[in-house]
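Re: beginner question about structure tokens

> Can someone show what the tokenized structure looks like for a real chain? I only ever see the sequence side.

Sure, here's an example I had lying around. Input first:
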Amino acid sequence: MFLNALVLCTAFLLWFVFRSDKRQRFAVILAWLIPGAGHFYLGEKRRGLFLAALVIATFVAGMIIADFRNISPLDRHPIWGIAHLFGGLMSGIAALATNGLMIVRDNPFYQVGCLYSGVGALLNVLVMIDAYDLASKKVKEVPETVEEVIA
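And the corresponding structure tokens:
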């Protein structure tokens, strides 16, 4: 199953590299690194702030619910580690900051916290798709003369 997922991801990345232009690639990479940054790059600041707040708040809420012990890339929870890969720097910083924390007590909401953080990271996929879609729209040409505006 893991091999199939790896082949599928590789095929998608190759498609993305050959199908997209520089503007689309840069917007998606920025959106992956920092939720909403791709939208800032494209001039959609309010949309970028909203999406960043949504993704980061969901991710951090999961960390709070799980006592900050749920971000462990491929150590404790391999499936959540895969989901967190889509969180970019948000997941990386959280993993580094909480690396040494161990589960010391029973938390009945631990799995809920894992779910929230995973959903927050996966929401970033939708942010990346939205940035790609916005970047693919053609820039409208500004009319040079009054006659072009009237026509």
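Each token stands for a local structural state, so reading them left to right follows the chain. The helical segments are 2-19, 22-33, 37-41, 45-65, 78-84, 89-97, 110-136, 146-150.
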